Amino acid sequence: MEIKKYTFQMHGDERGQLVVLEKDKEIPFEIKRVYYIYDVKENVKRGFHAHKSLEQVLVCVHGTCKILLDNGKEKEIVLLNNPNEGLFISNHIWREMFDFSSDAVLVVFASELYDEKDYIRDYKEFLEYVEKQKF
Ligand code: TYD
After folding, report:
1. Pairwise CA distance, residues 57 & 30, whole Å
2. Catalytic annotation, pick one of 49, 51, 62, 92
3. Is 36 helix (H, G, I), strand (E, B) or coil?
4. pLDDT tens across 84-106, in order?
């Protein structure tokens, strides 16, 4: 599976670091929504869904977490542990987020507003959905 992990330019100087994310530049879509996840309790796993249309870029701006990506055939785990790295997740990818450090802050940039109808929350349904996309 192709993993699109970005390394963002750092505009650092003696005062510290600064990272810029702009639509159609660092983020390959128009950002319609931003949300963030933090204070995740020990051993908690989140996500467990795929999207029909939504695209996202995940940035762990503080701390660390892992993201499991699953295209229905292959699975890969990506470690996010750097505020200047981003993980692009296309539609039709099942994701699970886990191993959050207690100080982790995971920021998500999304291509669409929140729409529960865009979610596939059942793994079996996800497998059937990606299978159907081939025809
Ligand atoms: P949930 O889908 O459980 O988050 P995760 O992907 O981390 O498992 O979302 C938690 C709650 O937040 C759920 O009630 C839906 C709500 N929510 C919104 O209202 N808007 C949003 O943009 C998101 C991502 C979630």
Report:
1. 11
2. 49
3. strand
4. 999 999 999 999 999 999 999 99
Q: Which of 40, 46, 49 for mutating ligand 1's site (highest number of atoms within 8 Å of CB)? A: 46
Cβ contacts of 72 within 8 Å, gap of 6 or more: 92, 94, 126, 127, 130, 131
d(CA 127, CA 117): 17
Q: Which of 93, 100, 98 is nearest to 120 (CA)?
A: 93
Digit-coded pLDDT (tens) for 22-74: 999 999 999 999 999 999 999 999 999 999 999 999 999 999 999 999 999 99
Ligand 1 and 37: CB distance under 6 A = yes
Tell me which H or E stretch contains 46.
Answer: strand 46-51
Note whether 116 and 54 are within 8 A (CB). no
pLDDT band at 134 (very low <50, low <70, confident <90, very high): confident
The tokens describing 4, both together, are 């699109």
